[in-house]
Amino acid sequence: MQKANHGHAASYGNDPWTQDAADLIRDIFETRCEVFFVFNGTAANSLSLASLCQSYHSIVCHELAHVETDECGAPEFFSNGTKVLTVPGPDGKVTPAALDRIVTRRSDIHYPKPRAVSLTQATEVGTVYSPDDLKALWAVAKSFGLRIHMDGARFANAVVSLNLKPKEITWQAGVDVLCFGGTKNGVGVGEAVVFFDPKLADEFAYRCKQAGQLASKMRFLAAPWLGVLRDGAWLRHAAHANQMAARLEAGLRLLPRVKILFPCQANSVFADIPLAAADALWKKGWLFYTFIGQGGCRLMCSWDTAEPDVDAFLADLQAVL
Ligand SMILES: Cc1ncc(COP(=O)(O)O)c(C=O)c1O
């Protein structure tokens, strides 16, 4: 960001920083994808989903998906009414059977035609889709002509958790478009929309502009990506966050009356903590939500969570319990 803040550069993404960051993303995914930088995840998700669908289509996603529960109807709004259809599934994941069921439930003209499936990687409850999970979903998606969208707000955490190359859990597993999260990985502002099928990116720049997502000083959105991608900091950040979550989970397992709700595979831990204890933690100044996922306390670790932070939280919880 500091390096980009010198002299002048062409506007609206026609600057060397944006070109270099997009090229680096192409290198990381080892393919010629189309890349756009937008301000936040809601815009990345809803605009990319809108580019896959007509207004009479539907998007299938998990019932806990951010696009369904936390985007204030933006995917429907920006697609002019495409309906979001939700499915249940264990550990926050869409299953091939659930996808098949909701698509085949109806085939008449009165049903919004399923056109896309949206998968969150890592999921809203801190689990990850393996390549086998993704390929099984791809087989079903392909058989019904559905496009695959991936909400990758925590994509880096999933890459590290699975110890795979980014391509193995994206275009090599059928993903058409990825919303690649920057904010949660240490970038100041912004997400990258990565189209693996370049045809789908046709006119996407117009969508961004119309939605107020085309930054005039794009270099300030793009340059921090160079900072995190160039020397692998994005993976170091994610590995650190995942390690802190693992440390937190291990500590929580030792405490009485605390129950871990989902496998800890990325940077979050969901724990059932007695309400009085959660209340006492809030009063001590700890910040966490209980309304995300299926209840329980949602404890997130980030790129800069320090071991003493985790240990202090555990000590406070032990004391209030
Ligand atoms: C799964 C998921 N997707 C997307 C987002 C990004 O949302 P936004 O940047 O619009 O707040 C988040 C943020 O919490 C998220 O958890």
Task: Describe the model.
By secondary structure, the protein is an alpha/beta fold. It is built from twelve helices and ten strands. The chain has a seven-stranded mixed sheet with strand order 1-7-6-5-4-2-3, sandwiched between helices. Helix 7 crosses helix 10 (233-253). The termini are far apart. 51% of the residues are buried. The model has no long low-confidence stretch (mean pLDDT 97). The structure holds pyridoxal-5'-phosphate (PLP). Pyridoxal-5'-phosphate binds at residues 40-42, 66, 120, 124, 151, 153, 183.
Instruction: List each distinct ligand once.
Output: pyridoxal-5'-phosphate
Percentage of residues in helical conformation: 25-40%
Largest sheet: 7 strands, mixed
- Oligomeric state of the chains present here: single chain
Low-confidence stretches: none
The portion of residues forming beta strands comes to 15-25%
| Overall pLDDT score | 97
- Based on CA inertia axes, which overall geometry fits? globular
Radius of gyration: 20 Å
Please give the count of helices.
Answer: 12
Distance between the termini: 44 Å
Question: In summary, what is this structure?
Answer:
With 321 residues, the protein is an alpha/beta fold. The chain has 12 helices and 10 strands.
Topology diagram in text:
Elements: H1 16-29, E1 34-38, H2 41-52, E2 57-62, H3 66-69, H4 74-78, E3 83-87, H5 96-104, E4 113-120, H6 131-143, E5 147-152, H7 155-162, E6 177-181, E7 191-195, H8 204-210, H9 219-230, H10 233-253, E8 259-260, E9 268-272, H11 275-283, E10 297-300, H12 307-320
Parallel strand pairs: 2-3, 2-4, 4-5, 5-6
Antiparallel strand pairs: 1-7, 6-7, 8-9, 9-10
Helix pairs in contact: 1-9, 7-10, 10-12, 11-12
Bound molecules: pyridoxal-5'-phosphate.
